[in-house]
Structure to design on (668 residues):
């Protein structure tokens, strides 16, 4: 994973609540054994019409969405299944951050493990961003703030270890593997009971 | 473990958590939590095995991993050439990859030749692989099902599947706790599915976010194990990390003698330990919810998330916001009207929510001696090979076939439609599964969630129907 320290991008806004992981990437795309190449399936049933052509009314298909790395979504983003294909699709498409006022537990964990900042904002800050699509933001991961063009800063919450992993660009497995002796000790203690 | 050794009364969740902490949580790092059992299936594991291979790692405790194939598997039997009718080369390759991975890493796979293959959350309990007080994970959100046995069981992503394969541990911040106490007793004709739909409606699809729910109270204690699994299964639909029900005599008698369970003196010793996993009197929960079982009615969903629930005999409520109106528009339902009588196209009985023997018996009780409506296609998909055998030994398959339904091979099937079992755009499906998300059962497909009784009654009527009439006639 590459370190994620700052993001400088305009936002794409999906104002709907409860955007579920089937919406992010439907089950029919989970047949892959790879974790790459899923960006084309992101939000597919919104992005494409039944004949396969892009739906020009969908926000990601508008010219101003091109190159945007920040998604602002309605409350309870990522609810539903545990499929890691959801953050894989978002990162493969080019997103580096998702902000909402609430993010489903499993999705949030999966996102952070894939270098995708998934963070929760205060309700009124979230509402402001939902109401102002296309705002150019400066995200500072270490400082846990989003700077608006007028310099105003919005704080976001982020679990400290996930933040460390994002900033350094490492995953958690290395950390777990370092604790092998402790894991083995735990096992022998339990067997002795 | 006993209360005397602790000053503070602990919840069931606290006790399981405490018993599995390898390294405690600090400000900087989550706890390292030991995982007793990982269930593995073909969809969320290939990239995890690839990661192990890339890093030159072994599976740390192959004996703590049980694998099966359920999501991508066809539910039609092999053709005359003996080949399984996979929906695509990709689904076949995914299953083949699981076969290769489990072989390479020394993991037990319940494959096509196994008498136990089935939906991972149906098979695990049947084998007795699930024990009270355990920590259990699977790359599947409906892992919450196993909480019915007093185990802390939760869904994880593929990266974490790899963590558990390599270290048998996960990094976790301790979730909050929620108690949902259901007092009284469910009315006749009201099922566990109706109860959990009622609960999700009450607390919302994000009401359990960040929490482990413990279900308690007389109505919960009165549930059978299969009913408890239905309730815990859909905890994730309220956003909860897990659902839990403390083990009691119902649990122990269900588990005794199953393949993975200890026997003889070891069983006697095990049940003493199992019984300790319950909340102490006065244990503190972060959130407490009370539900009166008498208020629960046979229910159905009317929107595009499992919190949009209405009693069958009630009218669809007006949309509270633009979002709910969008959902009604997608479903082609109108506020102020009852859904009873709405013509349907497909009925699906199955899934880890309602694909067990008691569910098939319930559906068959309505279908016995009746035919499904000519315009309706009905799929009945047993949750496992065991469920299928048991159902066939009771003759339930004949009831379904004679009624005009399809009797399929076990698997996840139409719950998420990965294996090609899907509806056509615009079709209305009455489904005993767990998610009515837009397009879940195929692009443009409209899903209503209901109990097996409602599903079967609707199949007969050719329209959403109240099973009360069919049950009383049958009785």
């Amino acid at each position: 994973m590459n370190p994620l320290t700052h993001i400088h991008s305009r936002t794409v806004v999906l104002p709907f609540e409860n955007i579920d992981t089937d919406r992010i990437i439907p089950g029919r795309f989970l047949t892959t054994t790879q974790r790459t190449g899923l960006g084309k399936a992101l939000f597919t049933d919104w992005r494409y019409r039944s004949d396969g052509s892009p739906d020009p009314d969908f926000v990601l298909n508008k010219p101003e969405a091109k190159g945007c790395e920040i998604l602002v979504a309605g409350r309870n983003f990522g609810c539903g299944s545990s499929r890691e294909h959801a953050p894989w699709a978002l990162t493969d498409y080019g997103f580096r951050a998702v902000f909402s006022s609430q993010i489903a537990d499993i999705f949030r964990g999966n996102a952070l493990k894939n270098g995708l900042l998934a963070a929760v904002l205060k309700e009124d800050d979230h509402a402001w961003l939902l109401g102002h699509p296309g705002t150019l933001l400066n995200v500072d991961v270490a400082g846990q703030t989003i700077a608006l063009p007028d310099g105003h800063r919005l704080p976001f919450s982020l679990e400290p270890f996930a933040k460390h992993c994002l900033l350094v660009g490492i995953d958690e497995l290395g950390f777990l593997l370092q604790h092998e002796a402790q894991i083995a000790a735990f096992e022998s203690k339990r067997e002795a009971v | 473990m006993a209360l005397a050794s602790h000053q503070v009364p602990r919840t069931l969740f606290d006790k399981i958590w405490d018993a599995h902490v390898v390294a405690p949580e600090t400000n900087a790092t989550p706890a390292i939590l030991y995982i007793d059992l990982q269930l593995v299936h073909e969809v969320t594991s290939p990239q995890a095995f690839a990661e192990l291979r890339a890093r030159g790692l072994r599976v740390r405790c192959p004996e703590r991993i049980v694998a099966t194939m359920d999501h991508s598997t066809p539910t039609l039997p092999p053709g005359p050439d003996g080949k399984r009718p996979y929906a695509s080369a990709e689904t076949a390759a995914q299953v083949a990859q699981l076969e290769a991975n489990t072989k390479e890493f020394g993991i037990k796979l319940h494959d096509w030749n196994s008498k136990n293959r089935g939906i991972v959350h149906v098979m695990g309990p049947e084998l007795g692989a699930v024990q009270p007080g355990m920590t259990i994970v699977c790359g599947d959100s409906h892992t919450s099902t196993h909480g019915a046995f007093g185990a802390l069981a939760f869904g994880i992503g593929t990266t974490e599947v790899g963590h558990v394969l390599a270290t048998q541990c996960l990094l976790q911040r301790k979730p909050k706790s929620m108690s949902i106490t259901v007092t009284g007793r469910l009315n006749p004709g009201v099922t566990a599915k109706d109860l959990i739909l009622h609960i999700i409606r009450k607390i919302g699809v994000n009401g359990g976010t960040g929490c482990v729910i413990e279900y308690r109270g007389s109505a919960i204690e009165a549930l059978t194990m299969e009913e408890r699994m239905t309730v815990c299964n859909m905890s994730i639909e309220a956003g909860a990390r897990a659902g839990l029900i403390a083990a009691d005599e119902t649990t122990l008698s269900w588990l005794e003698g199953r393949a993975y369970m200890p026997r003889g003196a070891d069983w006697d010793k095990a049940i003493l330990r199992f019984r300790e996993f319950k909340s102490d009197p006065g244990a503190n929960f972060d959130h407490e919810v009370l539900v009166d079982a008498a208020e629960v009615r046979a229910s159905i969903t009317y929107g595009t998330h499992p919190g949009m629930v209405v009693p069958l005999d009630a009218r669809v409520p007006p949309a509270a916001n633009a979002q709910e109106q969008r959902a009604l528009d997608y479903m082609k339902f109108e506020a102020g009207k009852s859904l009873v009588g709405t013509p349907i196209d497909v009925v699906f009985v199955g899934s880890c929510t309602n694909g067990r023997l008691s569910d098939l018996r319930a559906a068959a009780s309505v279908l016995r001696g009746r035919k499904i409506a000519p315009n309706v296609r009905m799929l009945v998909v047993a949750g496992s090979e065991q469920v299928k055998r048991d159902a066939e030994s009771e003759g339930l398959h004949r009831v379904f076939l004679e009624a005009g339904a399809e009797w399929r091979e076990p698997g996840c099937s139409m719950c998420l439609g990965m294996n090609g079992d899907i509806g056509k755009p615009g079709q209305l499906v009455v489904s005993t599964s767990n998610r009515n998300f837009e397009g879940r059962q195929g692009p443009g497909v409209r899903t209503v969630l209901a109990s097996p009784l409602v599903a079967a009654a609707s199949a007969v009527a050719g329209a959403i129907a109240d099973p009360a009439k069919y049950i009383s006639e049958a009785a």
